[in-house]
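Long-time lurker. I teach an intro course on protein structure, and each term I like to show students one example going from raw sequence to a predicted 3D structure in token notation. This year I'd like something fresh instead of my usual example. Would anyone be willing to generate the tokens for the chain below so I can use it in lecture? Attribution to the forum is fine with me.
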Amino acid sequence: MKVHTFTALGQYLAADVNSGAVHVLDQLTYDLLKKLGEGPVGEGRVPQELAAQLPQYDPADLEESWQELQELQEAGLLFTNDDYLDTKAAMDLPKAAVVKALCLHVSHDCNLRCRYCFASTGDFGTGHRMTMDFETAKKAIDWVVTKSGKRRNIEVDFFGGEPLMALDTVKRTVEYARSLEKEHDKVFRFTITTNGVLLDDETIDYINREMSNVVLSLDGRQEVNDRMRPTVNGKGSYEVIVPKFQKLVAGRGTRDYYVRGTFTRENLDFTADVLRMGDLGFRHVSVEPCSGPADDPFAIREEDLSRVEKEYEKLAQALMDRKDINFFHFNVDLSQGPCVIKRLRGCGAGCEYVAITPDGDIYPCHQFVGREEYCMGSVHDGSFDMDISGRFAQQNIYTRPACQECWARFYCSGGCSASNLLVNGDITRSNEVACAMQRKRLECAIALNALAAGMGEPANTKCNNTDCNLCEA
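-- Reply from a regular --
Happy to contribute to a lecture. Here you go:
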């Protein structure tokens, strides 16, 4: 597929897959482009057999639209070729880039018992609840300083379980990492993900001072949140955490944060949850679909897709009038795309990004923790399985069969390996339910951003990030 045509929010749209150009069309041009199918637009006048399929339109108007499509094609904005495939750029991707980000599991314990939790309510299925000691965290920081090579910026996400249950380790780790910055020419950027139960004024001040980003877990409406995210004692968490989150956000100024929720089969009307979070004063919101195998009672299934897709359209319509809400999945930059390698390979799990458990074991990302066949090594002895890393580094939109014909491949960069494994037992086999939701979100995002972004321009596939070691851009 070279051109994807679709309608959303009352607009007729076309996305040129390979260039990234997006076009807002009138209905005539949209219908003509759909009839043209795989294209390309031919020279000369509109073919008679094509015009015969659109008898409702005036021949002169058809001819004018045909000429417009020809001009777009000649400008390299329609029916463009995949230059990455033609030049075999995908085959030349680095097989093992330096590690630039850690998901540091400072706690494999939690004070909530979320019903859908992929981490088995905190212990990641190990049956062993524990927190990370500082010596292990220190070795993790030393390890990433070494593995990051010449890269200057390093990301560290304090994760769990609930990382505030290991706050002392968090604080000592931040202090230690900062002490290394000047000597090793590194800059650490810290993120923490928290359910908020243990937040107090002192901790809020600390997070707002030291954390570049913070992810706050909340599922939206009180009845939804308290049903899905109870405490250990089975009580609701909403009234405990919301005031704390509001205070934290009020004190962050311009620093990054996201309030992140999960929707399941039990609340497919998630538009109400997003709007509720906006009503609470939270501007930056992400609500993710629950993913899992067929026997997971909370995971979105194929039979739910029609309703979920309609709900995304409903949400997009609602957000046209809610400028106070920045919904993560509707963010798409139509003029400044990511660099080539990022477009082809995605998140970098297992090669640029890894998770480290309280024991010091290394995994490709937080969602692989507990799967011993994916344990890549340990920060205690410095081991790192390059065979596993290489398998992940080689995952890209050309090695995943379902991606090769998908119009959204350059936006999603091949999807999530962990989701693929969870649903299909294979990191290379795409989770089609997740892919369908991704495509719908992208359509809504493009529709929301199309008129404001300046149409007809191809996405920029180069970047100005001189600190990146992935390419020579």
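Some talking points for your students: The first strand starts at residue 3 and ends at 8. Confidence is low (pLDDT under 50) at residues 454-473.
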